[in-house]
Write a structure and sequence with these properties.
alpha+beta; three-stranded antiparallel sheet; two-stranded antiparallel ribbon; 3 helices; 32% helix
């Protein structure tokens, strides 16, 4: 049986950038219009859908495998973390 490591980053719902784009997304959903370019790029979708609010709070982040003679694992470079990340969770599945 194998073991898998999962790494998930979380953006705080209090992050100013998140709050700004969340407000725009909610307004677009209510008005039934597409997202403006900047907000579409932030969420990664052109259409407006409230499910993107929760989806954006949990991010997959770039991880890099490393190993040496006696151990192996993952590295996460701080510079690769998106703005607003306040927590990173490591979990194991087997």
């Amino acid at each position: 049986m194998g073991r898998t490591t999962h790494i998930q980053a979380y953006i705080s719902p209090d992050c100013p950038k998140y709050k700004k784009h969340a407000s725009v997304l909610k307004a677009c959903v209510e008005a039934e219009v597409s997202l403006p370019k900047e907000t579409a790029e932030y969420f990664g979708y052109e259409e407006a859908n409230l499910c993107f609010l929760d989806e954006k709070l949990e991010l997959k982040i770039p991880k890099h495998e490393w190993s040496d003679e006696y151990s192996q694992g993952y590295e996460i470079f701080i510079k690769d973390l998106p703005e607003g990340v306040y927590k990173i969770r490591f979990s194991e599945s087997w």
